[in-house]
Structures are given as C-alpha cells and as structure tokens.
Specification:
Helix content is about 90%, strand content about 0%. The chain contains four helices and no strands. α1 runs antiparallel to α2, α1 packs parallel to α3 and α2 runs antiparallel to α3.
Length: about 210
C-alpha cells in the first residue's frame, strides 16, 4: 500500500470521527450552534467524499475497490445519522440540501466514470494510431521491394533484348559465312571439273 493511500485513509478516519463527534454535539446544541455545526458537518461530508474519490483513483489500479466501498457505506451510515438528527428539529430543514448534495455526489461519480472512459478511448486511439503507422511503414517497405523487383525485371528484359539482337546478328553472320563457303565450294568444283575436262581433252589429243 502506498504512503499516499495511507495518508488518505488516515485523513478519512480523522474526518469521520470529527463528523460523528459534531453530530453528537448537534443533538444537545441550541439553535444558533446547531446551524453552525450543520454547516461544518456538511463541509466535512464534502471533504470526506473528495477523499473517497481520491482513494478510488489510487485504488483503481490496485484492485482494492471493496475497501472504498466499505468506506462509502460507513460514510452513508454517518450521513443517515446526521439526517436523522437534523430531521428531528422543526427549525431546520435539511432535506433539500441533502438531496442537492446527493445529486452533486452522483454527478461527481459520473464525471469520474466519464473521465475513465475517455482515458480508455484515448489509449485505444493511440494504439490504433501506432498500428496505422506500423502498417504504413510495412506498406512503404513493400512498395520499395516491388519497385526494386520491377527495376530488376526491366533490367533483365533489357539484357534479354540485347542477347536476342546479338543472337540475330550472329545468326545472320553465320548464314553469310555459310553462303560464302558454299559459293567458294561451287567455284572450286567448277574449276576442278574444268581442269578435268581439259586434261581429258589433252590426253585424247595426244594419244597416237
């Protein structure tokens, strides 16, 4: 238990004891003293309620809501005792002020609940924003990878085109060389045949 919680609980104990003592004095006080005591007691009730709200905030993460509930039940019992004492007096009507105080107390509790809901909503929004940023970063990384892959594919296509052109040039060169070789072979065959014919004629002419 933290020192702050212990301090709040001690203040609450002292305050409720003071309220109880003042209620005891209220039973035997005269009219003027009763009015002053009633004002002080109402102020003490507000202080006690503020302390309980502070305890609720401190206990909210500690899981000790039952202690605060017990304190509130005790404060409600003291409040009922005060109301009973005051209602017995014909010269002072506390009903309207008590009802107003209850309304204020309810509004404070609702305000605390709304504040807690807003805090949870803010945390959820922050978490959602973080997820959005992470998703955006992942998307940017994926786009960079895709751009790199596209450049790689484009470069590969360029190399394929160059290779295809080189193959076409090589094919044309080989065809040209083949045709030249065929022409040279044909010329050689013609020359050989011509020489063979001339040799045959020469041999026939020289024969006796």
């Amino acid at each position: 238990m933290s020192t702050l919680i212990q301090s709040y609980e001690q203040q609450y104990s002292v305050l409720t004891a003071d309220i109880t003592a003042k209620i005891g004095r209220l039973k035997t006080a005269d009219e003027n003293d009763r009015e002053d005591l009633s004002i002080e007691i109402q102020s003490n009730f507000e202080e006690a309620n503020d302390l309980l709200e502070q305890l609720e905030l401190e206990y909210r993460g500690a899981g000790a809501g039952s202690r605060v509930a017990a304190y509130r039940a005790e404060l409600q019992r003291v409040r009922e005792e005060y109301r009973s004492v005051v209602s017995n007096s014909a010269s002072y009507n506390i009903d309207e002020e008590y009802d107003d105080w209850s309304v204020v107390n309810d509004q404070r509790r609702k305000l605390l609940d709304n504040t807690e809901r807003l805090e949870r909503t803010g945390k959820n929004l922050n978490e959602g924003y973080k997820v959005l940023l992470e998703t955006e970063q992942i998307g940017a990384a994926v786009l960079q990878d895709l751009n790199a892959q596209r450049e790689t594919i484009q470069n590969a296509r360029g190399r394929l085109r160059e290779t295809d052109e080189n193959l076409n040039r090589s094919s044309r060169l080989m065809n040209s060389m083949l045709m030249r070789a065929l022409r040279e072979r044909a010329v050689l065959v013609v020359v050989l045949l011509t020489m063979l014919v001339l040799s045959s004629i020469a041999i026939y002419a020289l024969a006796p």
